[in-house]
Amino acid sequence: MSKTQYEQLIPRFLKYIKVNTQSDEGSNQVPSSPNQVAFLKDLAQELKAIGLSNVRTMSDGYLFADLPATSDQADLPTIGFIAHVDTADFNGENIQAQIVENYDGQSVIDLGDSGYQLDPAVFPSLKKYAGDTLITTDGTTLLGADDKAGVAEIITAADYLIRHPEIKHGPLRFAFGPDEEIGKGANHFDTEAFGADFAYTVDGGPLGELEWETFNAAAAHVQIQGQNVHPGTAKGAMVNALQLAVDFQLALPVHDRPEKTEGREGFWHLIKLNGTPDEAQMDYIIRDHDRQKFENRKDTLIKLADQFNESLGQDRVKVSLHDQYYNMGEILKNDLAPVELAKEAMTDLGITPIIEPVRGGTDGSKITFLGLPTPNLFAGGENMHGRYEYVAEEVMAAATDVIIKIASLATSEK
Ligand SMILES: [Zn+2]
Predict the structure, then answer these.
(1) Among this protein's residues, is 213 annotated catalytic?
(2) Per annotation, catalytic residue among 24, 66, 132, 180
(3) Is 412 exposed, middle or buried (0-12, 13-18, 19+ CB in 10 A)?
(4) Which of 130, 254, 305, 317 has the most C-beta neighbours closer than 10 Å?
(5) The whole model's pTM is what?
């Protein structure tokens, strides 16, 4: 299928990114920002207009919709497709997309008048896109392909299937949710109400990405109590909380930091340090694909605090931990059928599946643990979360193809 088959795909995408749907880390509202609520409300109208049924907004802000089967086959699985509507923590106001047609794979692309450029020498991924039509930012905002590309692809696929009832498929479910970027959106995803047997988030990067393993993730807060006295008479009396914080960080293995790890290597990442000699706080995130190593990393912090307290003779260092999400591979590995189906769909379309563990999480990490197996498919975006973000129209069309193919492959009437 070529992109010309999906007339509405790019117009839809360009319309969605015009709306600033940045989520708000500091908010206690669900969804975290009013713009997301408004966007989801408009989306509900659109889902009804294209002919989806049972369009409903759940109490956690998620928008659900159904598409009944066109196949008479009994016992077909119900398959879900999920995308998030919020964008990352970077300017998302007044997005002015640029369209670069028939990119030559080597030129430097000026991002508007911003002085920023997409340069293949800096971003070698650009070289893959010779002959493609790229959508970029003007350098002042992010693009929002993460995950408005996924939203546009899923809705375009649904629209296409509705217009082409001759394509046989089983029952389908669609979900669009808030607050993925602040790690909250899928916390209470109602898998029962959604009613799928398995699902896919369409929230990955370049062509072919198919992900079924993520990090295990925890956050650690380290609270340090010092003892501050005048520095002139401090000998033997002062306990400098900031010094303890520095010592604590230096006691961790130097290699196990984000900037020194890749592949399946995990880490402790110090994301915040502040304080005075009197008291200090540190925040870490802990990541590892391997569950046991992940648990060991959490233990290491607890043991380190114990050692400090022992040698100080006082309880001055306190670690509190909380788990954020788990590696969905732990569950998906027990039944790889959804992954195999996506692989088959891509292969049939001439797309080489790229299966690598995500060095991060997806909404699927949470949704899978809530009982709905949910690997992640590519949506097409590159350099996500900033001004260098871009996406190729051809890859967005390919992602739409994959969704349609997965839906139809589940039947035997291919
Ligand atoms: Zn995303």
Answers:
(1) no
(2) 180
(3) exposed
(4) 317
(5) 0.92
